[in-house]
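Sequence design from tokenized structure. All designs in this work follow the same two-part layout: the structure record, then the generated sequence. An example of the structure record is given first.
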């Protein structure tokens, strides 16, 4: 081993000692440059949905009759206490935008193999409220989209949809009012996507309301547009 290489390895060792890379789920020390930053055990515990193997799957079923889709799949299964939940939590609340980028790249590696997505013309992240973006410093859906865009080599259109500002608190409203509020909180943004094929991207799909509304706004404003969906996770 050359002196230069020995010094570099010593420096890396010291950095690890001073700033250990901890598993985002169980906090044990992660030795390799594993992405996302998980130990081997937690990495193995990540549950991949494999929805991309089937044209009709749990994600497309959840949006059936609400939004016509060319393709739809989530990367991971989201559940209480899962490693996936920890990753999404860190991405949204602990300033770890790189998790979005890294998992977005993983998702991109799967999407790039889908024949139905070969004619995709762009990637549209679901926008978040401007106040939340300001506090967080980024939109997690945009970070995921960046990872996907990097692998697919397709452009990203973060202004294709926009988020309107809420009136009053969400928590005091009834379920019906909240759904109505979600519908009204999105609007069409910039660009003409008529006859184009777009990939709509979000972090977690739960009821599907957000993606339903966002997809339908694009359908209303751009005649002939086709919509596909990719999310990091889906609540089962
Ligand atoms: Zn771990």
């Amino acid at each position: 081993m050359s002196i230069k290489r020995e010094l570099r390895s010593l420096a890396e060792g010291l950095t690890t000692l001073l700033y250990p890379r901890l598993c985002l789920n169980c906090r044990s020390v992660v030795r390799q440059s594993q992405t996302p930053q998980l130990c081997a055990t937690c990495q193995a515990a990540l549950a991949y949905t494999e929805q991309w193997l089937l044209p009709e799957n749990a994600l497309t079923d959840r949006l059936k009759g609400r939004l016509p889709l060319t393709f739809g799949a989530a990367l991971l299964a989201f559940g209480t206490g899962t490693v996936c939940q920890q990753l999404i939590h860190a991405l949204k609340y602990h300033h770890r935008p790189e998790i979005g980028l890294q998992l977005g790249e993983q998702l991109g590696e799967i999407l790039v193999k889908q024949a139905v997505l070969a004619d995709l013309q762009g990637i549209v992240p679901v926008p978040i409220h401007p106040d939340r973006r300001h506090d967080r410093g980024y939109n997690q859906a945009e970070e995921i989209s960046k990872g996907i865009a990097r692998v697919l080599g397709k452009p990203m259109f973060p202004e294709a949809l926009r988020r309107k500002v809420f009136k009053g608190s969400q928590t005091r409203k009834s379920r019906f009012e909240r759904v109505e509020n979600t519908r009204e909180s999105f609007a069409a943004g910039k660009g003409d996507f008529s006859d184009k094929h777009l990939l709509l991207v979000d972090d977690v799909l739960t009821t599907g309301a957000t993606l339903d509304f966002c997809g339908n706004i694009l359908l209303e404003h751009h005649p002939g547009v086709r919509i596909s969906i990719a999310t990091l996770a889906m609540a089962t």
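The first strand starts at residue 71 and ends at 78. We note this feature because it recurs in several other targets discussed in the main text.
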